[in-house]
């Protein structure tokens, strides 16, 4: 099965860099996406706000990026143990 997400979005919010109980750097983000998409033969304006998280060196890298900066994020979706909504786990970023 495949769980691979690619999303171009800007960093709308970023929590302070924290460390997991195992000592791994972690950061929680809110990403915002806006685009025009084709759906059922019609052009549609799409906006989405996505909760995201990153760990390790990627968390440290994201903590240094300015708010509002635009990136191409890649990763996967997972629902936290006690959560109801999927969270985007960021594994890589590239300047868009």
UniProtKB/TrEMBL annotation:
Q: Which GO terms describe its biological process?
A: DNA replication, synthesis of primer
Q: Where on the tree of life does the source sit, at the highest rank? A: Bacteria
Question: What Gene Ontology molecular function terms does this protein carry?
Answer: single-stranded DNA binding
Asked if the record carries the keyword Cell wall biogenesis/degradation, the reply is no
Q: Please tell me one Gene Ontology term that the record gives under cellular component.
A: primosome complex
Pfam family membership, one:
SSB_1
What InterPro entries would the database entry show? NA-bd_OB-fold (IPR012340), Primosome_PriB/ssb (IPR000424), Prisomal_replication_PriB (IPR023646)
SUPFAM superfamilies, per this entry?
A: Nucleic acid-binding proteins (SSF50249)
Q: What does this protein do?
A: Involved in the restart of stalled replication forks, which reloads the replicative helicase on sites other than the origin of replication; the PriA-PriB pathway is the major replication restart pathway. During primosome assembly it facilitates complex formation between PriA and DnaT on DNA; stabilizes PriA on DNA. Stimulates the DNA unwinding activity of PriA helicase.
Q: Which NCBIfam families match?
A: PriB_gamma
Name of the featured protein: Replication restart protein PriB
Q: What is the lineage of its organism?
A: Bacteria, Pseudomonadati, Pseudomonadota, Betaproteobacteria, Burkholderiales
